[in-house]
Write a structure and sequence with these properties.
Layout: E1 5-16, E2 19-25, E3 41-48, E4 51-58, E5 68-73, H1 80-86, E6 93-100, E7 113-119, H2 123-136, E8 141-148, H3 157-166, E9 171-177, E10 186-187, H4 192-202, E11 210-216, H5 217-229, E12 237-243, H6 250-254, E13 258-265, E14 268-275, H7 280-286, E15 304-309, E16 312-314, H8 322-326, E17 329-331, E18 335-337, E19 341-345
Parallel strand pairs: 7-8, 7-11, 8-9, 9-10, 11-12, 13-19
Antiparallel strand pairs: 1-2, 1-6, 2-5, 3-4, 3-6, 13-14, 15-17, 15-19, 16-18
Length: 349
């Protein structure tokens, strides 16, 4: 489940002065492994300056395209994002984990009206979802509210304009620019008034079946809270964080003692002893156990495992539902053991 495969860069396309799209070449023998659902992400592993880095990037291409493309925006303090924008060349080889993730659109359902709120690089999974929504049923409608600094810094601007031309009566974009005035665009950031303008004014006659939110935590919280205050059921609101606010680990301060942990990953069983103040994933990786992980910040879903014996508690959880937690699923990058023994199964998720 945590296997990486060597993939070659087939193409690099500039999206903005600070963002690129990387397209990977998928060998015939790996086509099945790299099939994906709109909205999923891949984890890329690469060594830079002697240090192994893992980064999760959402797939922006539609499953129907036959391509595997991710968009990467250069972050001021970023290591891999700077490397991707400045140093990667066609033909370079990277270790890539097969697609995963829960922020997805089911294209087999009946006609749907979908609204999405994205900011900056949060557009990457939305690109794949939007294309899939529009092509999967001739009556599907997709409304995108997209926040950026300016048109010049808008990732996939040309591709979005092409989609508008292709689906004139079914694909609608409301741009929001924080540092630029533009025709038909709102000025500022995506906030409560933006959500109300789109859902209660501009598209008040449209009944939306689902809302997809992707971007910084503050934006997602604002949009989600506004939608719920307007009577939208929580299960209709799907989100994926690109960045998450730091949460103080007060739980670690309260815990004492050690836990014997049995870890199952890739059909192998490992036994370790860890301090309860440690996080499960940290302790597992310290023992060179090849557990799946990517962000290590509770933003992606790579490190999910199931507790089959004992108890653990998460510092924060913005991914798993209450039902999934009740079934024993945890984000191991956020979990402290509470009991003297703990059994964690990465395969049973």
């Amino acid at each position: 489940m945590s296997d990486f495969h060597s993939l070659k860069i087939a193409a690099i396309d500039s999206l903005t002065p600070n963002a690129v799209a990387l397209t990977f070449e998928i060998p015939e023998n790996l086509k099945d492994s790299f099939e994906f659902t709109a909205g999923q992400y891949i984890t890329i592993k690469h060594e830079i300056n002697g240090k192994e880095l893992r980064r999760a990037y959402s797939i922006s291409s539609a499953p129907s395209s036959g391509k595997l493309t991710v968009g990467i925006k250069k972050m001021p303090e970023g290591t891999f994002s700077v490397y991707a924008n400045e140093s990667i060349k066609p033909g370079d080889v990277f270790e890539v984990m097969p697609p995963e993730g829960r922020f997805v659109f089911d294209s087999h359902s009946q006609s749907k009206n979908i609204a999405a709120f994205a900011a900056g690089s949060g557009i990457t999974p939305i690109m794949s979802i939007a294309q899939t929504v529009l092509e999967s049923h001739p009556e599907n409608i997709f409304v995108l509210v997209f926040g950026n600094q300016s048109p010049e810094e808008t990732m996939y601007l040309e591709a979005l304009q092409e989609l508008q031309k292709q689906y004139t009566n079914r694909f609608f974009i409301q741009n929001v620019y924080s540092r630029s005035q533009a025709e038909d665009a709102l000025f500022g950031r995506i906030e409560t008034s933006t959500v109300n303008f789109v859902t209660k004014n501009k598209f008040k006659e449209t009944s939306f079946d689902a809302f997809y939110l992707c971007g910084p935590e503050e934006m997602i919280t604002t949009v989600s809270d506004t939608l719920k205050n307007n009577g939208i059921a929580e299960e209709k609101i799907l989100f994926e964080l690109f960045t998450s606010s730091d949460t103080e680990d007060t739980l670690a301060e309260e815990l004492e003692g050690k836990t014997k942990v049995e870890v199952i990953v890739d059909d192998e069983t490992f036994s370790i002893t860890m301090d309860k103040k440690e996080l499960v994933l940290d302790a597992v990786l310290k023992e060179d156990i090849n557990a799946p992980y990517s962000c290590q910040g509770g933003v992606c879903s790579s490190c999910i495992a199931r507790i089959t014996e004992g108890k653990a508690e998460m510092v924060k959880n913005q991914i798993l539902t209450d039902g999934e937690v009740a079934e024993g699923l945890i984000l191991t990058c956020q979990a402290h053991p509470l009991t003297p023994t703990l059994k964690v199964d990465y395969d049973d998720v």
